[in-house]
Amino acid sequence: MSSFQDTDTICWEVRNSGIHNNGLFATSDILQGTRIIEYLGERIPKEISRARALEWDKQARKEGAGLVYIFEINDEWDLDGNVDYNPAKYSNHHCEPNCEAINYDEHIWLVAACDIKKGNELTFDYGYAIDSFLDHPCRCGAPSCPGYIVRKDQRWRVRRLANKKKKV
Ligand SMILES: [Zn+2]
Questions:
Q1: How far, in Å, from the CA of 120 to the mean position of ligand 1?
Q2: One digit per residue, pLDDT tens: the chain, 168 residues?
Q3: CA dist 121 to 70, 79, 108, 124, 145, Å?
Q4: Looking at the 3D structure of the chain, how many domains does it have?
Q5: What are the residues whose beta carbon lies below 5 Å from ligand 1 (ion)?
Q6: Do 123 and 139 share a structural domain?
Q7: CA 47 to ligand 1 center in whole angstroms
Q8: Distance from the CA of 16 to the center of ligand 1, in angstroms?
């Protein structure tokens, strides 16, 4: 990826979202390919991020909350975005998102996956694995939404499970 368009001005804001608590919204029209906001956080070695992810997973099972904000930077380091100085963490999951999280020279950016209109919520696919999907219900409202936050290539499995439940 080398043809990013950078914004000189801030083109997002955090406000209340219909999807989940707070969300990130476009404050101007944004062209496809624009790097919108860097996903900031603490750089941590893999062992620590694995331990944190497990801890959050436990919390999520107990409280139905505790989303994981970890991104991979490279083979040795991850990024934990659950910090106050990372407004990008407010971007919600959507099953038909308008942004992608892209690792660009070991920096994670939220990049516009299509042209985005001013006022639209900025979302990306959290890409959770199938094994914990029941902990992460999705209310994004997309026609293709399986009702849970699961990465795209595994969503058919959720639909199949849901169909089975209906038949019983
Ligand atoms: Zn959804």
A1: 16
A2: 434 555 567 999 999 988 778 999 999 999 999 999 999 999 999 999 888 888 877 776 676 555 568 888 999 999 999 899 999 999 999 999 999 999 999 999 999 999 999 999 999 998 777 666 677 788 899 998 988 888 888 888 777 776 666 554
A3: 21, 24, 19, 10, 17
A4: 2
A5: 95, 138, 140, 145
A6: no
A7: 30
A8: 18
